[in-house]
Structure prediction request, 428 residues.
Amino acid sequence: MFTRKRLVRALSSRGGGQQHVSFLERANVERGDHGSRGRAALGAYLAARLVDRILDADGSVADESFIRWQLQTTWECLGDFGGEDLEAAHVRRLLDAIARAPAARVASIRSELLRYSRFLENEDRGEEALDMLRLAAACSGSDIPADEFCELALRAGRLNLRLSRPEQAAEAFLAAGEAAHNASDEAGLLRVRLGETGIARLRGDFARARAGAEGVILDASSRPELETVARDAFAELGAVLERAGRPVDALRAIYEAFCRTTEADERAELLCRLGEGLAALREEEAALAAFDLVHGSEGSRGARLRAVVGSMSIASARGDRVGFERMRAMGAEFAERSSAEGRVRFLHESAVGLARFRQFSRAADAWHEALDLARQHRLSRWERRIERIVGHLDDCRGERVAEPAPAIAADVAPLSAGLRTLAALAGR
Prediction:
């Protein structure tokens, strides 16, 4: 009843064309910047092509011999790549799965592809995560059990939301809803409703989005088996309220999600959102406490870079040159192995800080580097933003105008105190 053909559009790449091309492009771009990172991307591309070959194989001795030869050639091409790099570890495990005996190979490959897709999602590489998810779906066979199909469809919907593709997300959530109903999966049905809330948010229908998130919270709260659904619903409500111009209410919802979360990557992402929201309200000490918790966490590299960027921004806004340079040096290490978007964000905030300290030539260099990187990786939102800045660099040389601090609502005080206490307990 459920086949991957129902998810063809939801699992399609943004531009179509050659399979797995984003990995090959990243390998070419990053080869000169950081050898091991470029080899990890190349390894992912070669491994994905090997999986394509396995899925097309007819089981003959000749086919198996070719697959083994191609696997050996891949290892020889990559060498001992990546060291302790997390992405390289995922690629190595995928290649190890490919090396397994034919009878156990495809199921093992599928498991590794799903893990790798989740890693890429946490690293803000949505297109690549969707590519690996598409390949995992291809490993699922012609008929997919309803519960397994529901998970695939929910992942596809979530990734399309992150990539701002509401139509593809809607198709994925519709298919997920049918599978969840077939499997009598109450959590799956609630997650479908939450996905529809995300689509409404993306389309600017904030009233519908808020009602949807609050409805899921009502149905999932106080039920231990649905705790993770309630957590995600509070996180979505925070995103809706933030977009709707209600920052204090948004922070309260995100903090509620954080209090319900135990998974390291989720906690790190929510702490980053809390820190950024508090910084915007000039609750800088609480924001720094949130960012400090991420610095010392086991969250994703992308989240830790995001926290460093947040701390760097606060330091430059305060005129703390020493703190800014310390955070910038730390961020440069994270940025080396981060996604292209993470590196662009770091370069942009570095340029903002340098401009605040009236280092205009260095700021211009950082913005130009960020613009080149955004163009190479087709990050159109960042490209447009930085182009506007570069076009008005001379305006940066005027006198700085102090921005009035926004009024702080009393509701933020308990949240801020809670984060500062957590940071103190963690020794941050």
About this structure: The two ends are 52 Å apart (CA to CA). The chain has 20 helices and no strands.
